[in-house]
Amino acid sequence: MSLSGSRRLGGPRQRGPQPVDAEDLDAAAAMAQHLLAVTDRSRVELRRRLEQRGYAPATAVAAVDALASRGWVDDDRLAADLAQRQLSRGYGRRRVLADLVARGVEPETVSRTAEGLREGQAEAVRIAAERLRPHHPGPITQPEVRRLAAALQRRGFDASDIRAELRRLATADLSAPDEEA
Predict the structure, then answer these.
(1) Spelled out in words, what is the top-level CATH class assigned to the domain 21-73?
(2) Taking the model in full, what pTM does it have?
(3) Domain spans of the chain?
(4) 10, 101, 148, 164: least buried by Cβ within 10 Å?
């Protein structure tokens, strides 16, 4: 069978995004709902996406406001969910806050989230350090201290929390033989 005679599966090929009526509020709201079905987004992030798709700025703002009034868009909920998800993946407070800022979350919401993240960072850095240092029995070596400190810093933990965790690891390694005896 010749390749030139074969048919393509999936129907006709679309040529990029379809043109939109920049002032159509209902279409903008429907597009925003579609975008929110994929993942939760901040107000600013959703507005930017709508504008990138060809909607006028005023239409994008009105569509986002309409969805926010119905509870579809909630920056506080987004911040709490993102913070919980990032912390459970072993990322620190600074990384969570940077992700919120990058998503366009309002500064007041970021500040409230930051206050809520102050507690529990010692536990989060301990869990992250354990994940980064699996199956390493014996005392922590100086090269490992540098590597672990750099990895924890990249994950968004504060220097004071990193130092405290490295001290804990060093003292735990020193006291381990005594506990076994």
Answers:
(1) mainly alpha
(2) 0.72
(3) 21-73, 74-119, 121-175
(4) 10
